[in-house]
Prior knowledge:
85 residues; mainly alpha; binds zinc ion
Amino acid sequence: MILPLLTDFPTLKLRDLLGAPSPSVSMDNVKVGSKGACLRMHLLGKCSVQGCSFNHKAITIPPERVTAIAAHLLRAGKAFRIHHK
Ligand SMILES: [Zn+2]
């Protein structure tokens, strides 16, 4: 669901993805890892930002958190699609 978004919008940033006005999903809703973790890498599956200074090291996310985040991203992805036809 989210990855096809990257095919259509290769430069998609998490900030843009979460930018749809409704339903709103905040950065806090989907934050993972410790401070400095690359959310693009960890949430969108890859990071193609040149010279990205955020941390790409593998992180562990509790399963229940994964489920919650997936639901948030799904909502954000749907909203993004609606606003970027
Ligand atoms: Zn990155």
